[in-house]
Amino acid sequence: MVMTRQPPARSVPPAAQKHSRQTWFLAVVAAIGLVIVGYIVLVDLPQRRSAAAPPGGRQRLADIPFDGQRAYENLKQICDLGPRPSGSPAMVRQRELLRSYFEKLGATVSEQTFRVRHPRDGSAVEMANMVVAFQPETKERFLVGVHYDTRPYPDQDPVDPRGRFVGANDGASGVALLMQLGEAVKDMKGRYGVDFVFFDGEEFVFREGDPYFRGSNHFAEEYVANPPGHAYRQGVVLDMIGDKDLQLFEEGNSVDWPPSRAVVNAIWSTAKKLGVREFIARRGHTVNDDHLALCQKAKIPTCDVIDFDYPHWHTQGDTADKCSALSLAKVGWVIEEWLRRGVR
Ligand SMILES: [Zn+2]
């Protein structure tokens, strides 16, 4: 079959057809070469590809070892707390929920509290980053960050930009994924430890011009001014990763700094090995997010995994039904495998 598709006669230039023994020898060598190449192209490569992705190319929840359904239940539980802007009672309840959840997993939970002035009325607002440490005694660590506050108002909502914003994708999705990821990370015993960092005040923003990324900036400044007893090797920030229609392009800022580019390469190549095609190895939007403070101030190579093409971004429609267990499963699986390879 392969031979008929690759007629060896064509590979021999007309000028060489002199029927000398040497010409015949070359023709035979060329034919054998073509058979080998033909085998690789037609038989071997497709088999290798199918080993990476299940037949048909569409992964279902049951194909993925990361429990996306439980992650999705977490997402609904977080959304049920209601809007969770910095300093709100629902944010305090979320913090209590996360503390007890991760302490039950055996992690060490600490809070990094700080105070900012409310951008509208100048009053003091209490904020807290939460750090969940696995293998806390390990001096070199990986960081997985998400923001856990929600924007005070759905300013992009076409009907009511002062309405209710529950932030299912933009807020709860990353938190929900880390809750489930903790189930795997608690048993990862390697050379390196893992910290989950929940950033407060990512968007305590009431009007354009109000500062973003309060928590990640505070975290990065503290890391430099009062260095902890450990150092971070690499980090990833997950944001808006629950969208049903998931597409994860490489984020521009992450790609532009060579140390964070290495993290991008590692994560996207892990996704390729697992056959998770929603990680698309091409440059997408350039997004300012919590990773910038980590890269620029703390010099921790950190990439941002974000699906910025989300039709319900900053609207009242960013609710749990726009997210899916399957998307959480895919991202969770890739990040889990990336950590598994990293910590050993
Ligand atoms: Zn947002």
Cofactors, ions and other ligands in the entry: zinc ion
Percent helix range? 40-55%
Total strands:
8
Radius of gyration: 25 Å
Structural features, described:
With 344 residues, the protein is an alpha/beta fold. The protein has two domains: 2-52, no CATH class; 61-343, Aminopeptidase, CATH 3.40.630. Helix content is 41%, strand content 17%. It has ten helices and eight strands. The protein has helices spanning 2-5, 21-52, 68-79, 89-104, 168-185, 214-225, 252-256, 258-274, 291-296, 325-343; strands spanning 108-117, 124-134, 140-147, 193-199, 231-239, 248-250, 279-283, 302-306. The strands form two sheets. The protein has a six-stranded mixed β-sheet with strand order 1-2-4-3-5-8, with helices on both faces. A two-stranded parallel sheet has the order 6-7. Helix 8 (258-274) packs across helix 10. The chain is globular, with a radius of gyration of 25 Å. The two termini are 46 Å apart. Residues 1-20 and 40-56 have low confidence and may be disordered. Bound molecules: zinc ion.
